[in-house]
């Protein structure tokens, strides 16, 4: 009983130290970022002035906005599709229960390196390499998404039920057949959910790639903001909100459908 009480005290002390450390880290981060509630409160009139300039929206740019939004959506869909094609095999290779330890760790390191590069930097590199337009935008979205989807897929594959995998392997199935019939069917719902959720995120990311010439709605956001044409910016924001809401609903329904 004494040993149990001692273990509980040590655990409580460790949890307390972790929470204190986290609190100190947050406090330092807020101080370092010069967080100022008073300045935020004083900025109220500026927020009001900005939103007042958005009204009424200038619907004369509706057709242009819809075309650029469709281009942004196609960039997101194309980039996400390419990312899924490459992330799935990388996810298999990164899963510790599928690949040897040396290979799994190497692939995880590679995926981490991809995720560490900011999307806007990747977009600039592809714009320099292949020119302006939606093509470098789709490539940038795909490249950046491979790192994140590969990580998600690998973690999902590692949680698969070992008994089912071993049962399929015990029938004499090859490595690829074991993955196809023993591992992958268990993970399909989450793999699909991750992919659709990433599509939603990629649309938001693609909306700003136009700032560096990678196509999409971002170019017009930059153009109208620099020209102080906030009534046109309002139309852009409304369309983006509608599309993101629809994609969010798509994510919800897809998750329900695959379960």
Describe this structure in words.
The protein has 259 residues and is mainly α. The chain has two domains: 2-53; 57-257, MetI-like fold, CATH 1.10.3720.10. It is 83% helix and 0% strand. The chain contains eleven helices and no strands. The longest helix has 35 residues, at 175-209. It is globular, with a radius of gyration of 24 Å. The relative contact order is 0.13.
- What are the low-pLDDT stretches, counting only 5+ consecutive residues below 50? none
Q: What's the end-to-end separation, in Å?
A: 45 Å
Percent of residues in beta strands: under 5%
Radius of gyration, CA atoms, in whole angstroms? 24 Å
The quaternary structure here is single chain
Number of strands: 0
Number of domains: 2
CATH architecture of the largest domain: Orthogonal Bundle
Average pLDDT works out at 83
CATH class wording of the largest domain: Mainly Alpha
Structural class: mainly alpha
What's the SSE blueprint?
Layout: H1 2-32, H2 37-42, H3 44-53, H4 62-94, H5 101-116, H6 119-130, H7 134-158, H8 162-170, H9 175-209, H10 218-226, H11 230-258
Helix pairs in contact: 4-5, 4-7, 4-9, 4-11, 5-7, 6-7, 7-9, 8-9, 9-11, 10-11
Give the key terms:
MetI-like fold, 259 residues, single chain, mainly alpha, 83% helix
Short description:
This protein has 259 residues and is an all-alpha fold. 83% of the residues lie in helices and 0% in strands.
